[in-house]
Structures are given as structure tokens and as C-alpha cells.
Design brief:
This protein has 101 residues and is mainly α. It has five helices and two strands, in the order H-H-H-H-H-E-E. It has a two-stranded antiparallel ribbon with strand order 1-2. A hairpin with a 2-residue loop joins strand 1 (93-94) and strand 2 (97-98). It is elongated, with a radius of gyration of 21 Å. It starts with a helix and ends with a strand.
Length: 101
């Protein structure tokens, strides 16, 4: 949001807006360092983080988000994860009966 202000506002108010952006960036970096330290201290999370971050296109933000929002990762198979995140519909078939899809 602040970056948009820089584009629209007169140059006379750019300095305080830039200060807000700098502070926000520093705080985000501090949070990342704290998360790194915490995850490195817990072997089970360190292993998950290494595995998730090895995937092509997976950056730190995605890795942290998946670890926080999907703590079940590692204990479910890929179909179960897809159902959990809503990536697939539940097929309600059993024997001869076919349920609503």
C-alpha cells in the first residue's frame, strides 16, 4: 500500500512514506530470522523445511506458509492433501452406490 502512495503523492511526503517502507522491511527480515532460528532448533521442522524448500519455485514465504497452515504434511498422501486443501472433490462412491459429486 505504501508503495502505491509513493507513486501518487507529491515528493514532499515521500520521506515519511519511505521510512515506513524501510521499517516494515526490517521487521519482516527480523521475523524471517526468528522463524529460521526456531525451525532450525526443532529437528522435525528442519527436515520438513528442507524438503519443502527443495521443490522448484518454493521460496521461504511458501515454505513457512505450508508448514504453518498444513501441519499434516508428511503424514498424509498426496490425495489426502489435495482433499484437505480443496484441490479435488470428494468422490462418494461405495460398491454399487454413487453419491453426489
Amino acid at each position: 500500500m505504501q508503495k502505491n502512495y509513493l507513486k501518487r503523492m507529491p515528493k514532499s511526503v515521500h520521506s515519511p512514506i519511505q521510512a515506513i517502507l524501510n521499517t516494515t522491511q526490517r521487521e519482516a527480515e527480523n521475523i524471517d530470522k526468528q522463524l529460521d532460528k526456531l525451525l532450525d532448533s526443532l529437528p522435525e521442522y528442519r527436515k520438513k523445511r528442507v524438503l519443502l524448500s527443495s521443490a522448484k519455485g518454493a521460496d521461504k514465504a511458501l515454505t513457512f506458509t505450508l508448514m504453518c497452515e498444513l501441519s499434516e504434511l508428511g503424514s498424509l498422501n498426496q490425495k489426502q492433501v489435495a482433499v484437505l486443501v480443496g484441490g479435488t472433490s470428494m468422490i462418494r462412491d461405495s460398491g454399487n452406490s454413487q453419491g453426489k459429486r
